[in-house]
Amino acid sequence: MSAEKRSDSKLPNVGTTIFTRMSRLAEEHQAINLAQGFPEFDCTPELKRMVENSMSSGKNQYAPMAGIMPLREAISEKVLKSYYRQYHPETEITITSGATEALYTAITASVRPGDEVIVFEPAYDSYVPAIELNGGIPVFITLDPQYQSVDWNEVRSKITSKTKAIIINTPHNPTGNVWMQADMQQLALLAEKHDLTVISDEVYEHIIFDGRIHISTASIPALAERTFLCGSFGKTFHITGWKTGYCMAPAAMTAEFRKIHQYLVFSVATPFQYAIAEYLQKPEHYTALSAFYQNKRDLFNEAIAGTGFIFRPSQGSFFQNVSYQNLSDDKDVAVAERLTAEAGVASIPVSSFYSKDVDYKVLRFCFAKNDDTLLRAAEQLYRFVWN
Ligand code: PMP
Ligand code: GLN
User: Fold this and answer.
1) What is the pTM of this model?
2) Is the CB of 37 under 6 A from ligand 1?
3) Residue 247 has pLDDT above 90, yes or no
């Protein structure tokens, strides 16, 4: 068999992710990287000390497959306090290698060949390949990147006898939209009626603005009983590089989830788990996170006010979408590349979050950066001459 035949792609349409490509381009041009979503600042020294202590006290061998019990207990307590649902640490919580693994494993546990999965796009880039690798068929609800609300009649019209699951993400990457109670109620009604599995990506649960409240699937019993809730500590504690997350689901669903998790990664880095379990006892960090990021959003948005970009303030996440429709007719990939090379500011073209070719003329900027970086980026965008 030839090497080509041997590497006959299961994902023929997938290349290197846009996050990697734009980060590389930013480096090449020494541009300010507001593209890939990660904080420019470090986690707290206290959390680092906790990892060091875990390592020096010998917590360096395999963790239990489902995660260390103190971390599962700490998550269970936090979720009970925040969303009033008790997930049993023994049978309903699994520590994962970031939310990415949680999502992949949840999709793999749910989707069989020929199953349809409802995906709202723009969508985070890992959902669709995970569905396709499992032989599933993504069925898209296409939203404008500046969308105001979901048309639930459209969602209803896309559900067939083959629909197995629905993937949701609030606060949302890349739009920064936040679903309110009414959307969650609609989702609960549909999921119950059609017996759908819900895969809920809630990695930005603590980054939500202007007094909004995160409505977790955990807080709605009709959803919690059919949902794989995927979370991450990466966004919450400024530790995206630690790749630690979790999945919560009812015991029978978790049992299936763990069958896959145990062969995908078996278990997750032990010293990080001990450190996070300890740090979770101090809610001051994550309860202050929304205000911290809202200040950054406001600083950035005020600074780009005169640039000609059109935008609605992000409602949550650490992303701000802007439309350049008054500034250029070019497609977003070309504009993002040009701004990286010529204005020295990298962003993500929002078309990368769609399955089809779209032309909304919207870029995503990540404002999880130091204030002076955001101001410098805004200044460079301000000075950039279009044409
Ligand atoms: N979901 C969304 C919406 C994200 O933005 C990200 C990463 N930024 C992830 C999942 C993956 O999280 P992790 O880094 O914990 O794998
Ligand atoms: N989630 C991050 C973003 O949206 C990137 C993660 C990655 O690089 N895969 O920018």
Assistant:
1) 0.97
2) yes
3) yes
